[in-house]
Structure formats: C-alpha cells, structure tokens
Amino acid sequence: MNTQTYNFSAGPAILPREVLKDIKKDFLNWNNIGTSVIEISHRSREFSVIVNNLENSLRDLLNISDQYAVLFLQGGARGQFSAIPMNLLSSKDSADYINSGYWSQQSMLEAKKYCLVDNINVQKMENSTKYILEMKNWKINKKSIYMHYCPNETIEGIAIHEEPNFENKIIIGDFSSYLLSRSIDINKYDLIYASAQKNIGPAGMTVVIIKKNLLTKNNPFLPSILDYKKNFFSQSMFNTPVTFSWYVSSLVLEWMQKKGGIKYFEKINKKKSKLLYQKIDSSEFYNNNIHVNNRSDMNITFNIYDHKLDNLFVQEAHLRGLKFLKGHKVIGGFRASTYNAMPIEGIYQLTEFMTYFEKKFG
Ligand SMILES: *Cc1c(COP(=O)(O)O)cnc(C)c1O
After folding, report:
1. Which residues span the domain enclosing 161?
2. Nearest residue by C-alpha to atom 12 in ligand 1
3. For ligand 1, mutation pick of 82, 158, 195 (most atoms within 8 Å of CB)
4. Predicted confidence (pLDDT) per residue in 285-312, tens digit
C-alpha cells in the first residue's frame, strides 16, 4: 500500500516538500537570529535579504526587464479585479473583458462597478467539445482602455496558450494558476497578476507585474492600498506585507531556479498533463470535453459518465493518498491540479488508481 500522499488541491495548493522541510528546520531560529522569520520587522536588514531574493528570483525566472515594476500586494486576485479598473480608467471609459470561464466572469462583474464593460465571449462548443476562439477572431473594441483575459481558468481547466498580439492595446491578464508553469514573453503584456496560493507560495501575497508607464494615472478616490504608484514607490511596503508568504515564496522561487527554471517545469508540466489526458482519452469511462489546444496543464478536469460513482471515486482515491480530487462546486466532477510542486510520481499514482477504479466499477 502506498503511504505517500499527493495533494491535488487547486489552491491553497501543494508546495515543494524540500522547501517545507527547510522552513520547519529553520522556523524557531531563522538565520541564527534567535527568532522566527515571522517575528521580525519587514524593514529590518535581516528581512531585506528575503525582499531582494523574492524580486530578483521572479525577475530572473520570467526574464522581466527594467521597464516593469514588480509588486507584492495583498487582497488576492480578487483585489486586483477592483484595483485594475480603479487605477487605469474612469467611469466613462470602457474596457474589454474576455469571457472564457468562471474567473474571467468574476473579474468582469467587478469591473462593471467602475466602467463600461464589453463582454467578449470566446468560449465555444462544437460537437460537444469546448474550445476557445483564436485570438485573431476576438472582437476587441478599438476605443476600450484595456483588454483583460485569463489564460488559465482554474475551475474549468480551460486554457488560452496563445500569446496576445494586439496593436495599441493595453493587455492585462489574470495569471493566478498559469504564472511560472511555462515560459511566457512578459513583453507581450502590460499588467499581469497572480495570487500566490496556486503556483508560488502560501496564500496572502499577490504578484503584480506592471509596465512602469502605467504608473502615471491619478484617480483622487483610489484607495491608497490599491494604488499601484504608491505601492511601487514604497517597495510594496505601503502597509505591512504578509511576511510569511514573502518568505516561503522566495524559497519556492529559489527552488525553481535550482531545478532548472521555467524550461524545466514547462517540460515536466506538459509531461504530467499529457499522461493524465492520455489516461482520460483512452478510456470509455472517464471524459474531458475540452479541445486539445485549450486544455490546461495545471488543472486537469474530468468526469465519470456515471455520476453515481463520483463520491466513491473521491473516497477511494483519498484512502490511497490521492487527496482533494473533487471538482469545484460550480461544475462538479473531478479536478487534479498539477502545479510545479506536484512530482510526476503523483501522476503515475493517480493514473494507476484510475485504471484500478475503472476495472472495478466500469
Ligand atoms: C484562485 C483564482 C482567483 C481568486 O484568487 P483569490 O486570491 O482568492 O482572490 C482568481 N483568478 C484565478 C484565475 C484563480 O485561479
């Protein structure tokens, strides 16, 4: 019987075991300073090592140039749903919101409070297969201030891997479950953001990578805590940051660098998702109806045709150490989140279990 546990939670999600062990080892006496890292000032000389590592590692991994500011904020991705329109436009302006699933809809609903919104639905269905319209067919409004989209819909497991190429348009992306999973060209974006608890670290911190030329706007009613310019000039310390999340995230990024950076993770992430999709596609028992071009490498969703078996599948998987496979409540079924910290062994265990379960109940 397998005793190792594999955590497929969508977020807060799995973190590298090595990193967690180091945190445990260092917790009561971090860097020999006689206290834990969460008991010291964010402005101390000791903590500044973490601050520098965090930003430098992220810039290094994603190849972020000096044209961009990197901010570490609070309020999650949902905080950014409000911060973006509040920073970048006024109530008379319009913005394009690409609608590809749950989270892009949520960001659009929030933006509607602050501006006019073009709802551009790009999720289509053909022969009971879901797919996303190619970007060249997206009907972007020339007058809109920016275009917002979500490259990986965490709940549905539907992804847009194509990178944007629109002239004279500010491009904004919710990269919460996509950032650091594969290489991207940062220069194609004006603002991307991601909450930490998917693929970066513990919940609390939100990464915002923003082109510096967007830091000029001045809206007198903008809450200071959401103000990109204020946060930039105070090195993301306008208020007290979530020091624990910064600390752990800096260790996760360092771990990624040591392993071989984005290239390494992109390769292994594709291998992991391929194994799972092959398992699903090769069976008459499991099903995923997303077009191969739009399948997520991070959140692999699937169903059993006979929904009466749903609870049993999750229970039996749980007993074998395969945890948190239940799909999000808005769509049901199953979801295996396979972020960077998920080792390929976890995928072997899961596909083996799926074979066993199908044999027994199929
Ligand atoms: C998880 C998630 C969110 C919500 O993040 P919070 O930090 O809870 O606000 C938003 N967008 C995407 C794509 C997500 O995966």
Report:
1. 21-258
2. 176
3. 195
4. 999 999 999 999 999 999 999 899 999 9
Domain assignment present for residue 231? The answer is yes
Q: Which residues line ligand 1 (CB under 6 A)?
A: 11, 76-78, 103, 150, 154, 174, 176-177, 195, 198
- Residue of the nearest CA to atom 14 in ligand 1? 176
- Residue in the structure block whose two tokens are 């699903």: 280
Site to probe by mutation for ligand 1, drawn from 177, 296, 338 as the one with most ligand atoms within 8 Å of Cβ, is: 177
pLDDT band at residue 362 using 50, 70 and 90 as cut-offs: confident
In this prediction, residue 219 carries a pLDDT of: 83
215 and 309 assigned to the same domain: no
Q: Say how many domains are in the chain.
A: 2
CA gap 9, 38 in Å, rounded: 25
The amino acid that residue 211 corresponds to is K
Q: Where in 175-257 does DSSP place strands (E)? A: 191-195, 206-211
Domain co-membership, 154 together with 290 = no
Instruction: Dump pLDDT digits (tens) for 140-196.
Output: 999 999 999 999 999 999 999 999 999 899 999 999 999 999 999 999 999 999 999
**Which residues are tagged catalytic?**
103, 174, 198
Compute, in angstroms, the gap from residue 203 CA to the centroid of ligand 1: 10
Count of CB atoms situated within 10 Å of the CB of 143: 10
pLDDT at 63: 98
CATH number at residue 333: 3.90.1150.10
Amino acid (one-letter) located at 312: L
Separation of 155 CA from ligand 1 center, angstroms?
10
Q: Are residues 117 and 206 in the same domain?
A: yes
Instruction: Give me 288's structure tokens.
Output: 């995923």
Which residues lie across from 159 on neighbouring strands? 152
- Within a domain: 94: yes
CATH code, domain with 60 = 3.40.640.10
Residue 1 maps to a domain: no
139 and 282 together in one domain: no
Token pair of 172 as six digits: 């904004």
Same domain? 215 vs 125: yes
- Please identify which residue in the block is written with the tokens 């949902």: 78
